[in-house]
Specification:
Elements lengths: L1 H15 L5 H5 L8 E7 L3 E6 L4 E6 L8 H18 L5 E6 L2 H9 L7 H14 L2 E6 L6 H7 L3 H7 L4 E4 L13
Parallel strand pairs: 1-4, 3-6, 4-5
Antiparallel strand pairs: 1-2, 2-3
Helix pairs in contact: 3-4, 3-5
InterPro entries: RNase_H-like_dom_plant, RNaseH-like_sf, RNaseH_sf
GO molecular function: nucleic acid binding
Length: 181
């Protein structure tokens, strides 16, 4: 059933598409970046840091499962993309994460079936808002603000960025593909 939903989702997007120039999507310089966002997840929460807006977003993880931290790190990237798309002004976005598996998943658009809803949701956002995304790796030691937010240590964020705005977010609901099945 899941595979049928995913294939129908792809067919629906291809049918509705005015065409995608893949080389254009692959070829853009870091100099063209409109927005940079940092993400992280811990056993207790997901954090998003948008330095250009001094904006910190936090979502608690209600059912922590240490074996699923990769899922939450990837979900933080999709939620950051959703946040960026809601601003309706950015075309080239870079999202940093300290998880190389997450980087690989988004840069190859290949994942185990349980992670496909993350990719489908991200692709829906990219296609609906004409956004180009690059997910890059940042060493954990350099991802301190997003890490601090994911651990709900907001006093540390405020000590470094006194005018930062902090809010909570609900992670974007994930799509399994087409609803036509």
């Amino acid at each position: 059933m899941a595979l049928c939903q995913e294939l129908l989702w792809m067919a629906e997007h291809l049918e509705a598409s005015d065409g995608v120039l893949l080389l254009n999507s692959l070829e853009w310089s870091v100099l063209e970046v409109d927005l940079v966002v940092y993400t992280d997840a811990s056993a207790t929460g997901m954090g998003i840091w948008c330095p250009s807006f001094l904006r910190a977003l936090y979502s608690p993880i209600v059912t922590p499962q240490p074996s699923c931290i990769f899922f939450f790190k990837a979900w933080a990237v999709v939620s950051a993309l959703s946040f960026a798309s809601s601003l309706n002004q950015f075309h080239h976005i870079i999202i940093f994460t300290d998880n190389s598996n997450t980087v690989n998943m988004f840069n190859t658009l290949h994942a185990k079936p349980d992670y496909n809803p993350l990719l489908i949701t991200a692709m829906n956002i990219l296609l609906d808002h004409n956004i180009q995304l690059c997910v890059l790796h940042i060493p954990g030691a350099d991802n301190t603000i997003a890490d601090t937010i994911s651990h709900s240590k907001f006093d540390i964020v405020y000590s470094r960025f006194p005018t930062a705005a902090l809010s909570t977010f609900t992670p974007i609901p994930l799509s399994n593909g087409s609803t036509a099945v």
